Amino acid sequence: MQFYADKLGLSAKRLNQVLNATSIQLLHDRLILEAKRQIIHSENSIKEIAWVLGFKDRPYFSRFFKVHTGQTPEAFQKHVKYHVETLQNTLVS
């Protein structure tokens, strides 16, 4: 760790902090991607999707989703349904 920290001009502690933050962000990004995929392609309710993704509390899942996407899972789902209906069953504009 110290070798890489020296090469980057950081302390080993700071490099560790950056790597941990990056790892967490990657995990959150992947979780949001999977949540969106589930909302778009599955017949499961938002509550069921939250449970499948490891959230024991649906409101926490909704807050997590909104923080990372700017909208609630329900708003995202409505937007996708409207988009598909108006663009002849496709998500591509």
Walkthrough of the structure:
With 93 residues, the protein is mainly alpha-helical. The chain has one domain: Arc Repressor Mutant, subunit A, CATH 1.10.10. The chain has five helices and no strands. The termini are far apart. The mean pLDDT is 91.
List keywords for this structure.
single chain; 93 residues; mainly alpha; Arc Repressor Mutant, subunit A; 75% helix; elongated
Question: What profile does the largest beta sheet have?
Answer: none
CATH topology: Arc Repressor Mutant, subunit A
CATH architecture: Orthogonal Bundle
Q: What is the mean predicted local confidence, pLDDT?
A: 91
CATH uppermost class: Mainly Alpha
Any idea what the shape is?
A: elongated
| Whole-angstrom Rg | 18 Å
